[in-house]
Fold each of these.
Amino acid sequence: VRVSRRSSLFASRKSVKEKARLRLRAFDVGDKFSRLPLAKASVLLPLLVREGRLHLLLTVRAMQLRRSPGEVCFPGGKSEATDKDEIDTALREAKEEVGLQPEKVEVICRLVPGIDKMNHLVTPVVGFIEDTFQATPNPDEVSDVFVVPLEYFIKPLNYKTLPYKTSSGYLSWMHCFIYDDQERKTSFKIWGLTAHFALFLALIIFGKRPTFEVDYDLDNLISSAENNFMNLYASLHERKKSNL
């Protein structure tokens, strides 16, 4: 009995991954946005399957960091001259921050980028990692590592929106998810660009309406995501011109 249960678990894990892979590949932007004249950064969105469900691995930034100390984010950072592309950057940073070996990541795709507070073009790179992965956080950069069921980002138990001013000066709203990790008795606040990428990933993979409002046309998710991004980029560009 044990063997058949294990093999059926393995089969279901495989089919969960296979479904996700197919959906994600349809959203791969490749290097479509790579030539935009902004400083580059990348993050890795590490997916793993636990108990038949997809989970996302996230980190908490060390308290002594100058930028966004103690905030939840994905492994990642600025691109370096030696990086071939955004995928290279994401893998190198994940290795430096949580000890994830690049060859242990099955890279699936690059998704529509975002623009952070420092006006970096941030590319999300999605990859599968083994559910047995044991993070070894680099204490200079990361104070904690945890996983969240991906479905939480479309069906959260604790969600709110936070007002913020975009870099081009207009008022907008950002998603904020509070995730209570029962095992560890810790609450994590996931917001900003990290929440934006996690939500987009969940929308792609599950193809379901979330329990809250989103500014995507869910019937044309890829084109509306690209339009949103290009509008954001254009507004940034306008502001740069008016500041000259």
Note: Helices lie at 2-25, 86-98, 192-206, 221-243.
Amino acid sequence: VFQKWVNREISNFDYLIQLNTMAGRTYNDLAQYPVFPWILRDYTSEELDLNNPAVFRDLSKPIGVVNEKNAKTVKEKYIFFFRYENFEDPLGMIDKFHYGTHYSNAAGVMHYLIRVEPFTTLHIQLQSGRFDCADRQFHSIPATWQALMDNPNDVKELIPEFFYFPEFLENQNGFNLGQLQMSKEVVNDVVLPKWAHSPEDFIYKHRKALESEYVSAHLHEWIDLIFGYKQRGPAAVEALNVFY
């Protein structure tokens, strides 16, 4: 599979799906759902220029430190504000870590897919029989990216649906997802980047970005973090890539 990918006989999308499968990730388990990377950083321009490297996310860094301002915080700040360098569990049960949450988990999958069954029902069950408050829901792609850049504790990567399934961006079932507290905006369809004119257009351009020359040249750096040698040990510590 690796050689086929290197020879460009299979797409970046297909290679990531196969890596996820080999790693034991499956659509049948929300706790081990396939994980895909955020690949863009430009969600505000009127047009998306895939020939400009500046529109792409740095794939060599975990999503929590793509914004360099967060790197110092991640090194120092821990759950309960322990320092990574100094934190020791008195019982010796917990290894040191940079992030108390994870880049892929069941709640994150339900967060993205809240508008599509059976994930809507699963979300409601998780929230004790109701929708979570509107401000915590997935309501805007630009706002979700900005939250990642502002908050090093939010480290959600993407799911494969961002590259092929426009329906998850639409509230086709007319669920009452509430209103945002500050703007009073009703949460309905997901707000798209300015460069996307419809959910289908977003998927088309996002998939095109995944298969772009820039991502093809740098995707292995993200794979090292998620599936490769930077998952554990000294390489993970150096890459600020240690999870609880």
Note: The mean pLDDT is 92.
Amino acid sequence: VPQGWSYEHDVELARFLYDHSEGVLQHGDCTKEHLSGVEVSSQAEDCGVAHLTDNQTNTFWESSGPPGQHWVRLNMKKGTIVKKLWLMLDGQASSYIPRRVAVYGGAPNRLQHLRTVLINENSFQNVCILRDMKTHVPVLEIRILECRDEGHNVRLQGIKMKSFWEWDLILNADMFQPARLVRYPLLEGVDADVLYRRAVLIQRFVHLLDSVLGYLIPLSEDSIGTFNALR
């Protein structure tokens, strides 16, 4: 820990990183900008893969095959890191709405399980199925494990993505120029190299915390005591 450093310094540094890194991500749908191609397991007539990215609410992709074998494969442009990935559901036909999906990512021949999502029965529009990726993966594959009401095929209005280029968030000491620190009084006067090394540590901590949050299961008798212990 740097000499004279406190928890409040970490809070202010985290706010600085958010303001100067995450700020560039506050724009709209990045799907077309960061996708190089989309593949699907099958498609019904007039309900093809192109409808997944046409940004229209009156069109959709519909699979045409045996249940449990439907998938959407997203080929990502090099350097893309996914911040959020949504499925746009078609709420007109309940049996076509996915109930359980799994997301896999990695090289085409070495996909690894990233997350399984049970979609709330009350969800009829947009559902976020992946968030806060830390590294680039060339391929993301969405596997439809189950549809509602024992449906055989799935129907999606589209996919939506918020993402960024990995080089947008590269940390370096040049980020911490005095002119950028004027709104962060606790950081003013601290050596740029010290701030850089502390920022790297914060990013590593966030990555580690993110990797275990999915395994923290709340107790059924959840109480303020449980929350305090977790905090």
Note: Residues 7-24+169-215 form one domain.
